[in-house]
UniProtKB/TrEMBL annotation:
InterPro entries for the chain: DinB-like, DinB/YfiT-like
Pfam families found in the cross-reference section: DinB_2 (PF12867)
Domain of life assignment: Bacteria
UniProt organism field: Hymenobacter psychrophilus
Record-annotated DinB-like domain positions: 33-166
SUPFAM superfamilies in the record: DinB/YfiT-like putative metalloenzymes
Name of the protein in its database record: DinB superfamily protein
Amino acid sequence: MNPFLTPPAATEYAPFYANYVRLAGSDPLQALRTQPLVLRQLLAGLSDEQVRFRYAPGKWSIKEKLVHMIDTERIFAYRALRIARGDATPLPGYEQDDYVPLSEADGRPLASILAEYDAVRAATCCLFESFGAAAAERSGTASGQPVSVRALVYMLAGHEAHHLQLLQERYLPNMA
């Protein structure tokens, strides 16, 4: 049985993540399984020049956005693992704007980024599918805020949904 069909209570995550929880839909595990297909459809036929596109000065390229999604997924999954296993150590935050330039994403082939994305997503799905109801309800602290394992899967699926939406609304329509 899927222990993630009940959305987390607002007390299970920081208010900042409310939109991500909402965007995850009613079954975040299913969203995690289908998002790679949506991503591939959005990127189909784009050239290397196009995946380096930024819709405004100071914004990330599509390649940087993809690596940011991978980094965030790894961090959220790591947090979920630690909390699910009963580790009560407060987990630090991370600064996404420091990570992205150091990723050197624009210098990588898109195929390499997508292969990494697929590997991380497969591992993430296996991890969350391994959790039972008790693990899903465990809570800990990340970035100085309370968070449950259940909230993390919703936050993760919603985070990706948010970035897929940005690709559709701000990137793809503005490409030459």
